[in-house]
Write a structure and sequence with these properties.
With about 110 residues, the chain is an alpha+beta fold. It is about 65% helix and about 15% strand. Strands 1-3-2 form a 3-stranded antiparallel sheet. The longest helix has 14 residues.
């Protein structure tokens, strides 16, 4: 995953309303804007703007269904973000030996 895409995704998730939209889509599956807006403290145009940012970041996809659009998580984008985080934030156990070695080498320990 390119660092630029990760930056866009992390920036998009920096907003509490966008995180709420992602959580709603994760727990409730694909939904139209109106259904999402009914579950959030923001109006429909605001939800649409947040969905646009999430889509540009590769976290959400949309599909035309008649006259409305149905939004869902972009599983490839979520997987890319997860892979990026795994690269920059290794599992807890793998970082521990490095920390121990640094402490043991530090003066006064």
């Amino acid at each position: 995953m390119h660092t630029h895409r990760a930056e866009l995704q992390l920036e998009a998730l920096g907003d509490a309303n966008r995180r709420a939209v992602v959580e709603l889509l994760a727990s409730g599956g694909p939904q139209p804007v109106g259904v999402l807006a009914a579950q959030l403290p923001i109006k429909r145009p605001g939800v649409s703007q947040h969905l646009r940012v999430l889509k540009q970041a590769g976290l959400v996809t949309d599909l035309a269904e008649g006259t409305r659009r149905i939004y869902a998580l972009d599983h490839d984008g979520i997987a890319d973000l997860r892979a990026y985080l795994d690269r920059v934030w290794p599992p807890q156990g793998s970082a521990a030996p490095h920390k121990r070695a640094a402490r043991e080498e530090a003066p006064g320990c």
